[in-house]
Amino acid sequence: MGAEKEIIVAIELGSTTIRAIAGKREPDGTMQVLAFAQESAANSIRKGIIDNIDKTTQAISKVVGQLNDRLNIYVKRVYIGLAGQSLHTVQNKVFRQFDGKIQITNDMVDQLKDINQGEVYTDSRILDVVPQEYGIGNRNVAEPVGMLSEQIEARFMNVIARNSLYENIEKCVKGAGLDIAEVLISPICLADALLNASEKRSGCALVDIGADTTTVGVYTQNTLRHLAVIPLGSSNITADIATKSIDMEEAEKLKLDYGTAYHTDGEDHTPRKIQLSFDRTIDEDVLQEIVEARYEEIIVNVWSHISKESDNLLSGIILTGGGSRVRNMTKAFTEHTHCNKPIRIAKGLPLNITTAHNVNIPENNNFNTLMALLLKGDQNCVSEMPVEKEAVQTEISFDAGTEKKVEEPIETKKEQGEKVGKKVKNLWGRIASMLMDDDV
Hints:
The protein has helices at residues 53-71, 106-117, 163-175, 186-194, 197-202, 234-242, 248-258, 284-306, 329-337, 368-376, 413-439; strands at 7-13, 17-25, 31-40, 45-46, 49-50, 77-82, 88-103, 124-136, 139-141, 148-162, 179-185, 204-209, 214-220, 223-230, 273-275, 281-283, 317-320, 343-345, 353-355, 392-399, 402-409. The protein is of the alpha/beta class. The protein folds into four domains: 3-86 and 164-196 and 348-376, Nucleotidyltransferase, domain 5; 88-160, Dna Ligase, domain 1 (2-Layer Sandwich); 229-345, Nucleotidyltransferase, domain 5; 395-439. Helix 9 (329-337) links the parallel strand 17 (317-320) and strand 18. Helix 1 (53-71) crosses helix 3 and helix 4 packs across helix 10. The protein starts with 6 loop residues before the first strand and ends with a helix. The relative contact order is 0.14.
């Protein structure tokens, strides 16, 4: 499989796992997944932020190397997702007053956009700008060009993050010997992949519960209104269970097997013991109380970002991410928020994704962000394998006080052995000749 196949490669930097995926665009516009690879990100990324440059660089090299081997390709550039605790939106307004009533032009709107783009945030940068609406007199409009007005107020939603978040991604990708096709904002890509136009238009919230973070995106009238990353995730629940003198790996299994985001005791409820390693036990009620308490904390924090727009969320709340797969998750959301809007968990592959016959991707929501990044790619990411130059050695010849460099191909071990053999043979010939002379 060569570069002519127009293969797109994307990488997701998760808090527990670094993943890479390769795919090709089909004639109908869908994306076919050809292969994926993953490596543990333990002690590499924390709260979505790169914590160890070297380990992250090595993990990126490994996952890309796996794609190269499986597909017999040479990946030269990658699309890579940006998320992390410092990622959030900030609203900004730019106002312009005219001398009289004039017609709004494209140039005027572009000037407002340029002014907003120049907004400075301490130790942070603007990664994307989402225009909201324009105030023309007492009206809010989406398209102001052509309207008559004495003034205009442009409202923008700036997506920003710390400079270090972006810079560390660049260091790791380049350190792995790769070029960056584009740095993509993961939550926005995920929303585009999971939400349809009707949901965004009628209003909805997308909640991605990951290992170390939970990301919230709010959409109304087909526009992003709010984006925030909460530093809480499903790994916090595992850590809470581990405080009961339980190994982290065992705690994770207990969470998945017995955890529930919300439960009520029935009349016939009988407390039971759950068997642990080393002949120990833990009460099921105690375990569930730990899991419920942490999920309640996550939900309450999520709701603080959604509640202001709750009346406008006609399509409700869509949950995704590995942390959303716990039992009674939608029930917990309803009980803790008293939200009367629909709440559902995203299931199946993102829109416009298919898989090759030999690719099996688990339907556990863990790969949704990775596939969403892949869908955004539009540049070929592979090239021809670089040809290694033939190694040369340099001989220095001294002639009349000058240096002369002569480059010759390095001899093979076989050639070197043959040359040594000839020298030894000649030497023995000379010794035999001398001995014959002495006998005479």
